[in-house]
Amino acid sequence: MNLEIPYKYTEVIDLALDTIEKDKQALIFVNTKSSSEAQAERISKKNKKTNQALDILADEILNILSSPTKQCKRLSECVRKGIAFHHSGLNSKQRELIEDNFRNGLIKIICCTPTLAAGLDLPAYRTIIKDLKRFTRRGMQFIPVLEYLQMAGRAGRPKYDKIGEAICIATSEKQKEEILEMYIKGKPEKIFSKLSAEPVLRTYVLSLISTGLVNSKKQLFEFFSKTFFAHQYGDIQKMESLLLKVVDLLKNWNFINVEENSNSMFQSADSLNEENKYVATLLGKRISELYLDPYTANKLIEGLQKEQEKNDFSYLHLISNTLEMMPLLSIRKSDYEKLEEKLSLNEDYILDTDLFFDDHYYLLSTIKTAFFFEQWINEMTEDRIFEKFNVRPGEIKFKIDVADWLLFSCYELSKVLMLKSNLNVLTKLRLRLKYGVKEELMSLVKIELIGKVRARKLFDSGIKNIKDLKNIGLETLKSIVGEKTAINIKKKIQMG
After folding, report:
1. Regarding beta strands 256-259 and 277-280, do their DSSP bridges make them parallel or antiparallel, or are they unpaired?
2. Per-residue b/e over 356-382, b at no fewer than 16 CB within 10 Å?
3. Residue 417 maps to a domain
4. From the CB of residue 414, how many other CB atoms can be counted at a distance below 10 Å?
5. N or C terminus: which one in the chain shows less Cβ crowding within 10 Å?
């Protein structure tokens, strides 16, 4: 372990260039997405080495999206010099290309956020930990020891190197001693069972009951008494009390029934209670199959059952006000006026009116998240989304995947509850979210080879459906979407 005392920018660059000179590879950990991009750019400008393979990879990364964003262009230019940045805001294919080409040695340096420290086995001779603090609600705070160990442990993997170097960046002797005491000599924090989180506990209890693995209080207690959660919780009676509260919630939400044993008239009250049978309702079973937190399911059901006028924003806001959608989009000072206006325009369509009496900042965060989805389905570009909402392409994909899951859940819950008025609009919203298009393009984007950009070009040229595509001349189609694409589209339509 090396504890250097360099200037943060120049020394990180020097360490990166030294790694390249040694024909080795390094991971440089920073605390934010924007820092990873800036750091990679600084190093790439200093590195003079490049080759044809890097140019080919850079072009591939640039053209992953049909319309390359500023982030795509920035990453591509870095990759031409054998340097990359890596964070959750990248497209998944771009992340995959970076990881694969780091493994094969083409990319030498990755500037990344701590998410890369977990789960990936990469051939890093060095890990350079530039930032040991992260901004939290309490200001800048030191990261946990466990997180430091995850990052440091990426260096010198047995499969790739005999030795490795983990280098922390300090700016003074005092900071050097602080890092030494806190991280080199420090003890890792205790780990905690995920069952200690209420959403996880609710989900597991419903799952156990719906699958028939647990069908009574006695079986419920016996199952959890053998878990790490029980070992860590210590107080078994308190744990049992917590489990019974979860059972009561599930019962109150009509996700389970507690059936009394009718043949127990000569048993004691305690014995009778032990033998009460837990049975999942049809609704409860479907919620478990959807992997929804029962709390979220109840909130969605309440919204779907509201007898009020609904629009697209109603459903987009309903799914935005869920634990599954966390973290919600953060609010900048410049956002407030626009979000207050958006709230005012849609106040009558919002399904969860309890929000109006809670934290106003949280309410506006749900409005901003729903507004982001609304702009996406109205064909706002990735670059414009990033400028307006600070959401990168990879984050767009992640949020859309979560939204699709929640909208599908709304559709399935509406079917079980016979809320037929919701079904058509939810089907359309899922399709529009998938492609990021207005409703008028739905018939076009469903056709293979025609995506968001081509569908808009075709529609604006008067081609609005498959019938129009069949009737249009090949030469005219070529002028709109290009020769190769036009020929392939015509072949596809003729085949069926």
Report:
1. antiparallel
2. eeeeeeebbbbbbbbbbbbbbbebbbb
3. yes
4. 20
5. C
